[in-house]
Amino acid sequence: MHKSLACFLVTGAGLLTPMTILNAQAPEPGRESGPVAVQDVTSSREPVAVGQGNRPAAVSQPMRRSLSINSSYFKKFYTNTQMADVGLETMQGYSFFSHKLEGLLPQNKMARVALRSATLFGNWHVSVAFGVAYHELGHATRVGAYGRNYKFGGTLTDATVEENGFFQHYGRLLLSGGLLSKTASVHTYDAKFEPAERKNLTGTDLARYLAKQELIIHAAGVNNQMAFAERLADEAYEGDGHWTFALAYFRDRSWSIAYGRRVPSYDMDRVFGSYDQLGILASKSQVNTAHLLAALLVSGSTYRYSRGLYHYLRDGSHSPIGAYEFHNVRVPETSVYLTSRGISYKVKSGYRFKDGLLLNAGLEYVAHGDHSGELTLGLAKKVESLRSAKLRGNVIAGSGIDAEINASLPLNNRSSVGMGLGHYSSKTLYGERNVPSLEHGPSSTMLWVKMSLNY
After folding, report:
1. pTM score, whole prediction
2. Domain for residue 224, yes or no?
3. Which of 52, 172, 354, 407 has a CA-to-CA distance to 133 between 20 and 30 Å?
């Protein structure tokens, strides 16, 4: 049997540094007034035209939290997009208990600030544990898409473990403690099918296909972390950001800087080895620069989450965090991905209409490598006449077409149901990171259903 092992070491207070990947035989609030240049929109506010008087004061309303069961939580149906909800809901749960704990303290500002500071350590551990597990999920879903069986695994102190599913893997990382050395990995086994595109390839064509496959699988970990940071930015745009998301956002935006500097860094070495084999000019230094300057510094949510974290430490605010907007236009977000064509930059913005309709737009462009790009257009709307049901849809157009649509309908104040459909093509940059299976061709479709308990 074949085994591909993607490993990461957690040391100190949960700080991750990558280890290796091995291939071997054998079986991761206050009030502000006056004209303003940038509008801060949260779910508790109506949009206000910039420069037209006072902004409404921030309302200290509780964030929306949920606990869900999703068809995508079963191993056969794992998807990167839906499994991100696990991280969101874990952090929401952490915020709930930290909020309740603070309520037990006397009205002493210093004691409360001290507790809030202490809760950041626990929040960091939660974000690290999910970041590692979600990183490994990225590898796992790409391995599965290319037809190979896999298990999660790794080591805790001197013990080697192997886990059948994501939740067992994530649970071990959560419960192991931030001061213990941990590694996480994905073990790949014999093929369960051969991708349709590979069957008739020989010689140079087969070699290029395998190099591309290797690149996509090994880049999938850091790509998943960047995608999660992008998801957290989108949560803020829809008014559902929270201070407990901030550390995960910062970490995942900048992770590959530390990851790529480790020598050897097996994932990154394999990625750039594949780039060389494919004749693509891209380097680790370009990735590091892109993650620091573009993904972290040139993204509106970096500053919005920083402000939200500051207000939590100072005031104990658990109010939802919104996005920065200028004349109802979303301050852009930038993400960086390692694709089979080279290093890409993805820039997203949007427009908020008066009726609450959100128009999302994005461009992902390969700046270092085979210059190409794709466009994303999407809509998001809360339908008040349907119990504030949420509808979302996106279309991605490039060398192929991807489409996603999902809806969430509240049943009452405490529960809701959701359903979604996604069609992905490996010929798009987005699709190669998310296509569920390549068994029958370059594209496939995934349906999911979900039930949530809201609290």
Report:
1. 0.86
2. yes
3. 407
